[in-house]
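User: Can you predict the 3D structure for this chain?
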Amino acid sequence: MVYCPGVMNDSKPLEILDTAGAVIDAVGGSAAAGRLTRAKIASVSNWRKKNRLAPRTFLIFQDALEAIGAAAPPALWKIDDPKISELSRAV
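Assistant: Here is the predicted structure, written as structure tokens:
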């Protein structure tokens, strides 16, 4: 899977989720996110509260979101988006 914000293979626009809570809710809530990522509900609750998802869950969530026509920026996992980093260095 290649992260491509806002674009699906069939050219339908993806819904972009911009908070950890929105990502968690999109996959079915805290319990479902915990099962999906094999994390305790307390951890999922902390992700929601801190608005940061565990980096190890990036591909898991991206696959789940793609299946429902959604995407989320890597920054929610504290992952730098090289396109954004490159633009900020050019300024």
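Residues 15-90 form a domain with the 434 Repressor (Amino-terminal Domain) fold (CATH 1.10.260.40). The first helix runs from residue 20 to 26.
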